[in-house]
Amino acid sequence: MSQQKNVTTPQHGASLGNCLSIGAGIALLLILFFLISGGWFTQQPKPEWEKYWMIRPLIVVPIAGAAGGALFYFLGFLRNQGGWITALAYFLSTVGYIIILWLGTVFGLAGTWWN
């Protein structure tokens, strides 16, 4: 009879795909709200903008949101530590997501609304 070793691996609350899709979904909703509230449908775009200028932010911002979701997933090992490290991991995840989303929004809207 042989002995079996119990190997424990860190448990994530969600898979990488779930974190990516949740991050991208939140970003998509935010950029849609931003575009619609800014008059996307009612304004005529400036002549120097491309014809389909709104495609760029609708693609770039959810990709940035997915990157923020990946950051949340990869900081999962810190959230499993317990104590103040868990609180720090949630803080870093939230601040990192906001920064990544802000940079993605600026890059997505560069040359149009934020020129």
Automatic annotation (TrEMBL):
Keywords: Membrane, Transmembrane, Transmembrane helix
Domain of life of the native organism: Bacteria
Membrane spanning stretches: 20-41, 53-75, 87-114
Protein name as annotated: Potassium transporter KefB
Source species of the chain: Adhaeribacter terrigena
